[in-house]
Amino acid sequence: MLSRRGCKPEVLILTMVGIGGLLFLFATNEGEHVRKAATRVSSTSPPAPTPGVPTTPRHVPECKENSLVANISGFADLPGHIQDFLRYKHCKEFPQLLDAPNKCGGAEGSPGVFLLLAIKSSPGNYERREIIRKTWGEERTYQGVHIRRLFLSGEAGDVREAWKLNRLLRLEAAEHGDVLQWAFLDSFFNLTLKQVLFHSWLEARCPGARFLFNGDDDVFTNTDNVVQYLLGMQGANDGDGHLYVGQLIAHVGPIREKWSKYYVPEQVTATNSYPSYCAGGGVLMSGFTARTIYKESLGIELFPIDDVYLGMCLQKAGLAPASHVGIRTVGVRVPSSKLESFDPCYYKELLLVHRFVPYEMLV
């Protein structure tokens, strides 16, 4: 073994050349995969297939930036994420990186799925997904009906993070078979895009599912109560009639303050009112309503607030959202600060409560 002082120049040169070669291979192979994986909204390059993981790439023409929006008055003063939304809001099709084609037993077997849990989850939210799998999102049969689970995801914006997190999602998909991922930037303003892509998947892969829960990965859902509620109304609505319930929001309009997460400027919409809609933290709908939303979405351009967009689809179809007292997307109000907020008595008859960190969800 050579000491640091006695290391010959020839050995140092050869060592450096070898390391340089390895770095070059990594940069050209893995680095290229990173760049492809972390595409922004306009990218449609299909990913390389992953052995052992179901995938159905959607080969679509490249969706190009709409450069004409730069001529809109005040465009240059808008925040960057709103500028990007305006440039690419016409893009509704993206390659699918991860699929779950047999989740519902195929299109023909999908009527056997009573409740499909479709949970919106950013790539980095691994702990939330794991807790949901172990608790309220467990796939099982309850009261004689089948419950199935899916997580809906895009890609991280940072190049290196996207490469790592895409590998993570592939591992999860291989183990659990419950991840749908598309090649678009997973961001707040792209939640509508995620919703539209999911409804397109539903139409192709699981058109017969009778009911759907669609919500965030930081909610607690009492799945038993959801099933009992749906079974209780089965005589009038077995998934073939309209159902769309949640925490109803009505008589509101766009927020025009730039500091707000929900800021929607007049360059996006000139209207000062939204249709009635249910808060996006958690919504329960019938298969009929989910299919109707898909059909109406084909003719409605994307809007940056996903729950409002779903309200637009319902309004166009002549359907109305409804309120359910058991869905609490703003949390549970405890009568006194001296009382324990995790007392099961506050939750035993509810369908959904928003929001929790993973350990709270388990508790």
UniProtKB/TrEMBL annotation:
EC number(s) reported in the record: 2.4.1.-
Keyword field contains Cell division: no
Keyword 4Fe-4S set for record: no
Superkingdom, natural source: Eukaryota
Main location (coarse class): Golgi
Biological processes annotated in GO: poly-N-acetyllactosamine biosynthetic process; protein O-linked glycosylation via N-acetyl-galactosamine
UniProt-recorded name of the protein: Hexosyltransferase
